[in-house]
Amino acid sequence: MDRLPSPPTSAIRTLLGACVELAGRDPEVRDALRAVHSWLGRQLEGTGGPLRDKVVHTADGRRVTSERPLPAEPLADLVLVARRARWKAAALRLACDRRAGGEEGLEAVEAGLRETLKGLPECYPWMLDGPMPLPPDGPVRMAAASYDALARVAELGAELGADDHDAPPPTELLYLMAEAQSAILVAVRNLGLRGDSDQRDLFAWLKHQTTVHRIYVDRHMRLDDPADPAGASDLLARADAGAEELGRKGQDRKERQQLLKKLRYHLQRGAQGALLAGDQESIVTALERWKELGLATRDRALSETLAELGGRDDLSDPLLVALGGFEEPPAKTEDAARDPNAEVRSLLKGQAIAGLHLAGDDPDLVGVAEHLDLEAIESLEVGGLSAADEVRSCVQSTSASLILLGIRLDQSAYEALKEACAERDLLFVRLPGGYDRDQVTRQILRQVGWRLRRGVEA
Is the pLDDT confidence value at 442 over 90? Predict the structure, then answer.
């Protein structure tokens, strides 16, 4: 029997492009494409070649083959994220109970879940209908607990942002979110999946908030700093215990934003002329409220806003008195706390450091040591990029507590390095650009800064 001719590449590209474009408008199409994607990923997991390389993995980013770009996605709906996560937690527990057998009422529970699913876009019942069997109950129930924790922190985010989307969320909440989404990513990978829509959406929301409000979250925002899904129950307890305090802080932040907006509005009205009595009275009221809330009297944003009153000779006595209760914030200085080199020197004080490099290379380890105020950096030589046994031997023999990796090892040697460091509880830092002094500082802070700070605080 003659084989049918393969469709032309242009036809495939047109078809896939139309599907991607439609997925931007139709949740059911997105669900279907993600289901096919997950199935393809599992089927091709053990194979190689061009097709395997082109499968898009949710956690690794997106690759668009259509000439038309993907439509911009709106910011995630945290209420929907929480509902989907709770549904997945319940469905995972049902999957465990269903295969155990013997428990009455499971059919009714499943029917109720499937009915609820109709109102949850982009939520595919892979744990109930997937072509591959689930792992043992342990990792499945751990994933369910992780979804419960993610649902709770998403709810907190929705509650705190419901009234004012411009106010920055409490930093404590962002850390909880970072831990929750990272734990989900680890948990679903333990089940054989490459990613999860709720992890993706919560991470995108979190990344947007940290970028817009310039808040740095140094935990669980990178693939090499995963959260342990075994701690999901503890994470849920911390979220519940801190809900009231987070709510209070969130409310204070919202009111702070509203007061700043009010002050800027009245100051703008007087920018081109006299500041009317009514505007001055409103400014006094806002400043009094600021103090009632216990907000900082040396707030930089407030100081920059009130700076517009400087030099005016038409201010009333009540306004001058109110302004007298606020102080100028300290000037921004490049002190040791803000100098990354100084911070790294402080964190590495007393630490033994080693640098891994190829035999025959001569990296400037002496210069790096002087830059970091270290007595010396131990030199660890390996014969080649694939020398896994040499790498393991170097790590096992060194007395260093942190290893600088200034070469790009092959996969087997890199895995040997990670395993050997894990066995001895050592830290290592990858240096993509070699032993450049400034890069060493940046990469230490970026990759292991939080671990070093934890050791100093302890």
Answer: no
Residue 347 and residue 207 in one domain: no
* CA distances, 9 to each of 3, 6, 14, 241, 366 (Å): 18, 9, 9, 56, 56
**Same structural domain for residues 88 and 191?**
yes
234 in a structural domain: yes
Based on the fold, state whether residues 106 and 213 are members of the same structural domain.
yes
Q: Kindly give the residue spans of alpha helices, DSSP state H, lying in 24-166.
A: 27-43, 50-54, 78-100, 106-117, 126-129, 137-160
Residue 454: band (very low, low, confident or very high) from pLDDT cuts 50, 70, 90:
low
| Helix and strand totals (H; E) in the chain | 19, 4
Tokens representing 434 are: 């070699």
Number of domains in the chain: 4
Rounded to whole angstroms, how far apart are CA atoms 444 and 453? 11
Tell me, what DSSP letter sits at residue 162?
Answer: S
Instruction: Answer whether 419's CB lies under 8 Å from 392's CB.
Output: yes
Rounded CA-CA distance 181/220 in Å is 8
β-strand 427-430 against 402-405: which pairing, if any? parallel
Whether residue 103 has pLDDT greater than 60:
yes
Is the pLDDT reported for residue 50 higher than 50?
no
For the sheet containing 402-405, what is the strand order? 377-382, 353-358, 402-405, 427-430
pLDDT confidence of residue 11: 64
- Across the chain, mean pLDDT equals 81
Q: Are residues 46 and 89 in the same domain?
A: no
Confidence (pLDDT) at 61: 34
Same domain, 234 and 263: no
Tens-digit pLDDT profile for residues 404-431: 998 888 888 988 998 898 888 889 888 8
Same domain membership, residue 94 and residue 212: yes
Q: Tell me what pLDDT residue 41 has.
A: 57
> Which domain covers residue 395, as residue numbers?
340-457
109 shares its domain with 182: yes
Q: Tell me whether residue 70 is in a domain.
A: no
- Sequence-distant (≥ 6) Cβ neighbours of residue 45 within 8 angstroms: 192
Residue 62 lies inside a defined structural domain of this protein: no
What are the tens digits of pLDDT across the range 314-349? Answer: 889 999 888 888 877 665 544 444 577 888 888 888
Is 65 contained in some domain? no
Name the β-bridge partners of 427: 402
